[in-house]
Amino acid sequence: MSNHTPSLAELELRLAKLERQNRRWKYLGFPFRLLGRSIFLLAKVLRKRLSAASTAAKPAGAYDTLVVRRLELRDKAGKLRGFWAEDADGSGLVLADAGGKNRAALALTVAGPSLWLYDAAGKGRVALTLTREGPGLRLYDDAGKNRVALILTCESPGLALYDAAENLRAAFNITADSPGLALYDPAGTPRAALDVDASGPGLKLLDAAGKGGALLVHDAEGPSLKLADAAGKTRAGLSVTADGPGLVLADDAGQVRAGLAAFADGPVLGLRDAAGKRRAALGLTADDPLLKLLDAAGKIGVGLGVMAEGPGLALYDTAEKMRAGLVVTANGPGLALYDTAEKMRAGLAVAPEGPGLELRDDAEKRRAGLVVTADGPRLALFDAGEQLRAGLGITAEGPGLALVDSAGKGCATLRVVCDGSSLALSDAAGKPRAILRVVDDGPGLGLYDAAQKGRAALTVTASGPTLLLSDAAGKTRAMLTEDGLSRP
After folding, report:
1. Model's pTM, two decimal places?
2. What average pLDDT score do residues 363-379 get?
3. Do 240 and 358 fall into the same domain?
4. Region of residue 320 (phi > 0: left; psi between -120 and 50: alpha; otherwise: beta)
């Protein structure tokens, strides 16, 4: 089992990039209201003069130089078609059609010059003014309601559109920073705003209370969308950068609690607690999916992954040291335990042959192993070089103990079988040279040469002890019993 868990890419989305100021929309309606008051005063003056124009006057004579306080224009039938007059408010020129309906009026007052155009019914439909704030143009419907206003001030040009109740519904202006468009509901509350500044275009949608609902911007890093709740707190943000798209979700306190991003390496999902600390991260790379669970200090505590070999679980201590690992491979499940230096000290696995336990020293050298196979349990002990030195097993015949030298050669074997027990001692070549047996008939000792030829055998039976001595060819050359020494 590997003692390394791949780290996930840090999930840091550009929520701050989504935050934009409300810009200038709440001030946009002011110049239009100012223009409205100026035109209202001018219109009042013109209506006063038009009313006075209804009085008939006789044609005057012709002069080379004419000095008058009032000038009238009449057609061939003597009908008044226009007049120019002056009073305390200023001077003005009025033109009428053949039916006597006023169709145009030009006035000059202390507020500035103004031009009015009237429809066939004599209703003012167009007003062009020039005040200290700048030139302005207003358009009226047939009910006399102002529906469109265009002005140019020292700051910027602006266009306003009104509904039938003269409520401001849309406004467009251009400042030194950027052009902007604002849309209003019937109550006069701004509901949408669009502008373009040096950083890029931005679109804002507001709720009925005029609070932020959605903000869409496109800056140098890419497009981003922010969604806010009724309290104006940002609750969701979506952005697309050169690294990839990202989504963040926030709680009612505006704290980011979840983030999802798709990087070149793969998608990553991050979860945070109420304090903004990362507590969980799920990532999918080109190779494996990985899940990390972190403590309140942001340190990894649990790692879960699915690799080519199989799924794996890693557990870490408060110092982010891996202390336990669990994997499942094609060969079976395995558990590894690590010390504070992240060295493997114990392993438990279930292989096709059976379960096994392994213990290691601080150099990660295998020193003891226990397995259970179909033949029975076996215990193996190893030296510092991981060389098997002792083995204990239980088979169908019985238990057995084997001792091995540093060269891996068996030097002693102890077995207990159904008909007795035996102890075998071997030479450096692993060849048994002495075998001690205890069977039902009695104990026996056999000594062998390097060619595995029996050279001496000592037995003790019910009839008494017997010693046999043999030559290299295996022929008995002497036998010693209670009766004495004999030769073949």
Report:
1. 0.63
2. 95
3. no
4. left
